[in-house]
Amino acid sequence: MAELINMPKLGFDMREGKLGEWVKKEGEPVGQGETIALIETDKASIEVPAFRAGVLHKILVPAGDSVPIGVPIAVIGEAGETIDLVALGVTKTAAKPTAAPAPIKAAVEPVARVEAPAVAAVLEGGRLAASPVAMRMAGELGIDLRKVAGSGPAGRIIKRDIEAYLAAQDRAAKEAKAAPAPAVTPPMAIPSYEPTAEGYRVVPLTGMRQTIARRMVESKTTAPHFYITVDVDMAAAMTLRGQLNALLPESDKISVNDFIVKAAAVALKQFPNINASFAGDEIRVHEQVNVGVAVARETGLVVAVVRECDKKPLAQIAVESRELVGRAREGRMKPDDMVGGTFTISNLGMFDVDNFIAIIGPGQTAILAVSTVKQTPVVKDGQLAIGTRMKATISADHRVTDGAEAAKFMQAFKAALEQPLRLVL
Amino acid sequence: MARMSVREAISAALREEMYRDERVFIMGEEIGKWGGTYAVTRGFLDEFGEKRVRDTPIAEGVIVGAAIGAAISGLRPVAELMTINFAFLAMDQIVNHAAKMHYMFNGQIRIPLVIRTVGGGGRQLGATHSQTPDVVFAHFPGLKVVAPGTPADAKGLLKAAIRDDDPVFFIEHATLYQVKGEVPEDEDFMVPIGVSDVKRTGTDVTIVSYSKMLQVSLEAADKLAAEGIEAEIVDLRTLRPLDIAPVIASVKKTNRVVVVEEGWRSFGIGAEVSSRVTELAFDYLDAPVRRVAQAEVPLPYNQRLEQLALPQVADVIKAVKDVMYLR
User: Fold this and answer.
1) CATH number assigned to the domain with residue range A103-180, chosen from the 4 options 3.20.20.10, 3.40.50.300, 3.90.550.10, 4.10.320.10
2) How far is Cα B55 from Cα B128, in angstroms, rounded to an integer?
3) Predicted model pTM
4) CB contact, 8 Å: A133 with chain B?
5) Which of A39, A309, B130, B212 is disulfide-compatible with B299, CB 3.0–4.6 A?
6) Best of A159, A161, A162, A284 to disrupt the B interface by mutation (most B CBs within 10 Å)?
């Protein structure tokens, strides 16, 4: 029997997807789980596996077109089957994108402002993690689960989250009544500017640039950032790295960044408040230490998440990180690779930078900007000497943490790197 | 109403039924002269005589086999197996004969037999004498399996079992005999077989249990109430036929389930209840169903290890907090 393949939901904030490439052609046989197409979301290019075996009868959305999630993109069925698109419920218009992507400067509804930042967990295949009763309540009450923050294990949305969401909406409705038309600028609106110079060419925003623009404005306008810089003596770490890598095959070599990820995880374990999310009326301290590593791509930036870094040995972090970053560079990330981060490291060490500061990812409390490891003059025992140093700057959300705590966190981070043997124990 | 122990309630049920119907008689190891290992039938030999109170050889297959024969021939035997651990010796008689003859002989035969036996751990009797294999017997269609957790239910269910025309496997618990409670004195007071009972009402979590673990769950519920958590407790009372409706009604209210059983977790009561809950109330669950059960080892003899292996009040409290996502 012929069945429709719909545009899958590949991330909790995905609203539409762009057909990047059809891997299978019309009429080609397809095995269950085999990749039939590549979807470009606003973050990455993701493989769409066939949910069943059969023949790819008809492609409904050509490569390059974008459609909202849930819209049929293809028909799969048995070999030799006649396909009746109308019987399958496909109208001609459904196959074509009807509107341009919604402009991101669209006004935000007042209700949207009270929503807690969604930290709902996304399961493999892009499903939201929610308990059955939460799903049923959301269905009955017409609640979009993507807007609900999950407080269960690993972000599972449970009944009390739905109740909290309803209560928040209630409060918002009452406030809106009490103070009609507040003159507050929606925090996520992004102003556009008339060009001041004559002559320009128009570069349309890619999905990824839209996402970066939205998330960075959201972070800088809602999270009060403060910054602390430390100078880390990397001599011991560089020596140890050399010794370790002499023993390891090329494929398993450990990078400076792997040391930094592990050191951050060790420090986060000591200061769990840095490993947290600000959620409106509460702070959620995460149980897992999932360190995101910002990866630069030609089209923008993605964050690959190495899970439970506190529990994994350095060598394992190195292997996983290499694989994740590789997938990220090739634009073939899985939805799981990008979600669930509780802290981020942005490393511009390869660009010979002295120091820089980063913008916190929404939903996290801090980001660590690490710069190049350099030979530099240092004063040691009253004498000038040549030191091996690296600057690291934390940007932290003052709603969650304060200067002293962040400074102590940086001390712990620095200590971990300066006595690197502890990282391999 | 009279306040009595489970032991007194079971004695009273037997005595009342033996006076009411002269076809009712009891048989088993050391039930006559000795008065029963748990003193349930003390004085019965003098009261009813040797014809109706029969000491048997130490041969469980013979006890159940003879009782089946007596039941087929028109009597209403109550056979006692000293502990449920010895019922394994009579397994063929119980599951191949008692449970199936009515079915296999086209309904021509009825077996109004009650097998009374004692299960459960916690008395340092060692791994072979401390088991709670209730599910083994509840597995077989054709057998009714009853396991009361209060004096009133013990009396009412035993009277219903004796008056039932089919074989009933009646499981008492070794550590419940002293538990006291209010028991109706009416001679026709019965608790129907196959009806679960809500023993405590609450709104936050459903605890499903029976027998000794009912008492453990009730104690846990009192402690939880002090913390502001109201548990609803459903007492299964009968394992076959299982009455799941009150559990489902409760889950629809509380959205969370903890099943507390004394036997081992694997393939147990918790597995059965959990499965039925997902079949019948999936859309009402807010958390995975949690099982509290015995550690999966032969029960240790050492007192502390034995208590560690058996489900305790603290285990129930922890499971309740888990399904409520509390820490």
Assistant:
1) 4.10.320.10
2) 24
3) 0.54
4) yes
5) B130
6) A159
